[in-house]
Amino acid sequence: MARILLAEDEEVLRMLVVDTLEDEGYTIDEACDGEEAYNLIKENDYDLLLLDYMMPVYTGLELIEMIRKDNNQTQIMMLSAKSQSSDQQKVLDAGANYFMSKPFSPIQLVQRIEEILGDAE
Predict the structure, then answer these.
(1) Percentages helix, strand, coil for the chain, rounded to the nearest 5?
(2) pTM of the complete model
């Protein structure tokens, strides 16, 4: 099953997403800020990165830019309450593959991840 990194500073949301995805059989690593996420990304191979836009240390946008400098082809989905089309475009221009607006339902997230990982195989 796929390995996913979730970088989210809101603990309750992080726990909800981790529980939901583990119930679906995914292996989940979690980070509570951008620095922790970046260190995990350097140490591990992930099938998908789920990044919060607004996190301490490095934002999701900064993380994407850092990751893409290494030509990392990992699939990236940004999770954000910043859902203006200009914010979405900024994220996609930085190198994210997908954008999901908060709030979202766990079912919605699982369906989207299944689509992404099905497309990536």
Answers:
(1) 50, 20, 30
(2) 0.93
Q: Distances in Å between the alpha carbon of 29 and those of 2, 32, 44, 86, 120?
A: 11, 10, 10, 30, 19
| Alpha-carbon gap, residue 23 to 105, rounded angstroms | 15
Contacts with 59 (C-beta within 8 Å, 6 or more apart), sequence order: 34, 53
What DSSP character marks residue 5? E
Q: Which residue bears the tokens 């989940």?
A: 28
How do residues 73-115 score in pLDDT, each as one tens digit? 899 999 998 878 888 999 999 999 999 999 999 899 999 999 9
CA distance 73 to 5: 14
- How many angstroms separate the CA atoms of 43 and 54, rounded? 23
For 14, the 3-state DSSP assignment is helix
The pLDDT of residue 71 is 64
Token look-up 């200009």 returns 86
